[in-house]
Amino acid sequence: MALLIKGGEIVTAEQRFRGDVLVEGETIRAIGPNLEAPPEPEIVDATGKLVFPGFIDPHVHIHLPFMATFAKDTHATASQAALAGGTTTFIEMVCPNRSEDALQGYRTWKEKAEGNSACDYAFHMAVTRWDAATESQLRQIVADGTSSFKIFLSYKNFFGITDEEMYHALKLAASLGVVTTAHCENAELVGQLQHRLLAAGKTGPEWHEPSRPEWVEAEGTHRFATFLEATGAHGYVVHLSCVPALRMAVEARLRGVRLHVESVLPHFLLDKTFAERPGVEGMKYIMSPPLRHERNLPVLWTALQAGMIDTVGTDHCPFDTGQKRMGAKAFTQIPNGIPGIEDRVNLMYTYGVQRGRLDIHRFVDALSTRPARIFGLYPRKGAIAVGSDADLVVYDPAYRGTLSAAHQYTSNDYNGFEGFAIEGRPAVVTVRGKIQVRDGKFVGEPGMGRMLRRTPLPAEEPEAVYAH
Ligand code: URP
Ligand code: ZN
Ligand code: ZN
């Protein structure tokens, strides 16, 4: 049966106009005013609503063994949370640790997702060590359709890699045309600062930020950019949180380094005072890089609007309050992560678009179109165009509500944005033409999501200044 989305205001990264969208099967068949539909279509009245391309979260953790525990969500709960909030595709980090086999890890993550996700998904493959087997394993993974890597400059001896390993990973990425995403913090300095603070009896969550100050992130960002420069690889900084790191990224781009920048939902809306709350209240807000001094927040918004920050992800990573309490005696034992997959679109719309900080087209670009372009999903995803997958968000800008863990799909006993007002919410969300959400409720088919296989981007001339 055809689906006709009628009379909405279609908003993409470039355009805004009133019209209908006709969906046949899984794809968009026609776009325009007063479209003729085949007999007896299902009709969604989008009068007074905005129609966006399905949103893409480029950075989530669902299955994640980390810090002696596991993140709380399953692919079923996380994908339904994503959809309720207007996200129709997520890209999950496959994170085997250094002592695990990369290919086995990749298979594990795929098996966890397959048949369980209600929306489409792709993976970034973490490279957590480099040995004789790594190159051929990564070639197999890329050939299987996972054409982006992840590296951690932090989390020494667990996910973290050495500079030598980073060099080899980036050389391979450059030769394959694969984008490498990177968590940029100096692992050695974090370890030393943690040790110094704990030795001084500074054990509470308020000491997490001082153990990974802004310059620790700036150094990691600069080092990653320098290695991109040396190898000609294409990079993407994940969860950039502060002005000194942003400066390093922008300077690298000015030198011609192929580098994209992502910041994540918590860093736009929460500052370090949340993590300074006593006890478990502060522990809820421990993530890395940490929540920062409030002076950073307006600069991140400006940089996002200007396109210096390309994309907005979530770094969705739910640990419940019981798990957070594992760090009651030492902040270094608090599992790092804040959930956000369900609330990114509504919060960025409310505090960005509705508050005049973010142009509506840049909003669509940063949360949908640009992630699709950078990670090889465009124009199948991230677009409202004839032939694109019919992933659509019919958005009600008149909705008013308040976020609360009491009515969330995310599997967790708290919401880091508890009590935040939202001004707008998806009224209808489709995945490949199937209605999965109505008025904030999941009403669809739980396991319909598919893995999106991507091909590497065409290899470009290396722009490295120091290329050998
Ligand atoms: O604190 C965070 N960000 N947790 C998830 C792991 C990571 O570093 O992305
Ligand atoms: Zn990270
Ligand atoms: Zn992450």
Task: Provide a compact summary of the structure.
This protein is of the alpha/beta class and 468 residues long. The chain has 14 helices and 19 strands.
Poorly predicted runs: 461-468
Number of strands: 19
What percentage of residues falls in helices of 4 or more residues? 25-40%
Instruction: Profile the largest sheet.
Output: 9 strands, mixed
DSSP strand content = 15-25%
Radius of gyration: 21 Å
Please characterize this protein's 3D structure.
Helix 7 runs parallel beside helix 8. Strands 1, 2, 3, 4, 5, 16, 17, 18 and 19 form a nine-stranded mixed β-sheet that branches. An eight-stranded parallel β-sheet has the order 6-9-10-11-12-13-14-15. Strand 2 and strand 3 form a beta hairpin. The protein starts with a strand and ends in a 26-residue tail after the last strand. It contains 14 helices and 19 strands. By secondary structure, it is of the alpha/beta class.
List keywords for this structure.
468 residues; alpha/beta; nine-stranded mixed β-sheet; eight-stranded parallel β-sheet; 14 helices; 19 strands; 30% helix; 23% strand; globular; binds N-(aminocarbonyl)-beta-alanine
Topology diagram in text:
Elements: E1 3-11, E2 16-24, E3 27-32, E4 42-45, E5 50-53, E6 55-60, E7 65-66, E8 69-70, H1 75-84, E9 87-94, H2 102-113, E10 120-126, H3 134-143, E11 148-152, H4 163-176, E12 179-183, H5 187-199, H6 208-211, H7 214-231, E13 234-237, H8 243-254, E14 259-264, H9 265-269, H10 280-283, H11 296-306, E15 311-313, H12 321-324, H13 344-353, H14 360-374, E16 392-402, E17 421-431, E18 434-438, E19 441-442
Helix pairs in contact: 7-8
The protein binds N-(aminocarbonyl)-beta-alanine and zinc ion (ZN) (2 copies).
